[in-house]
Amino acid sequence: MTAANGASTTSSPSSTTPSSSSTAKPTSILFVCLGNICRSPMAEGVFRHLLTSSPSHPPITRIDSCGTGAYHIGDPPDPRTMSVLEDHGITSYRHRARKLSRKDFDEFEWIMAMDEDNLDYLSRMRRKIVENKGMSEEEAERLGKVGLWGDFGGNPGEEVVDPYYGARDGFSIAYEQMVRFSRGFLRFLEERGEQGALDELNRS
Q: What is the pLDDT of residues 62-101, one digit of tens each?
């Protein structure tokens, strides 16, 4: 895939490369939706759970979620989000909604939107940071990469529909998407780590 900021996020892994758990560089990820009470906390809760149940995953230094809107700052996730997570054994997750800030682009390598509208918001905000600070291309590359979370699920462009105004089954659908996207992203990180190890071997 290609991130919304134009940076490529694809790699060409080999099945014979070293274990990614020892070669992948640490990373961080921020999940973003509108209000930070339904989709992005669902993504965060699922992702955290998968990491604890998959000890071979690449090193993740920080995981968080937030919203592009300020509608629910300080509120816990929607009860339906928590209920669906609990149905799948995710019982310890806790979160309070917060709004996206400019410093998030400095603190997270990956900033993942749940839908195209929020992806557009992230892309515009990132461009504005680059322009306002007069960043060089090299400096801009160090800002968080923005992208669509659904691109990692096998169907490029797949969005997570906001389930807030619907019934509980919308949250169950979102859960299944989060599991699929998370697994795809972890595979991507593993492949990226393996490719990095190959590059090092080729340079030696």
A: 999 999 999 999 999 999 999 999 999 999 999 999 999 9
Indicate which residue of 33, 64, 80, 192 is catalytic. Answer: 33
| Residues making up the chain, counted from first to last | 204
142 labelled catalytic: no
CA distance 113 to 141: 19
**Which segments within the chain are labelled E, that is strand?**
27-33, 60-67, 110-113, 145-148
* Catalytic residue flag (residue 66): no
Domain residue spans in the chain? 25-190
Are 81 and 41 in contact by the 8 Å Cβ rule? The answer is yes
pTM of the model: 0.85
pLDDT band of residue 13 (cuts 50, 70, 90) is very low
pLDDT value for 191: 87
- Of these residues, 78, 80, 162, 192, which one is catalytic? 162
- 25-190, which class in CATH? alpha beta
The answer to whether the CB of 2 falls within 8 A of the CB of 185 is: no
Catalytic residue among 39, 80, 126, 192: 39
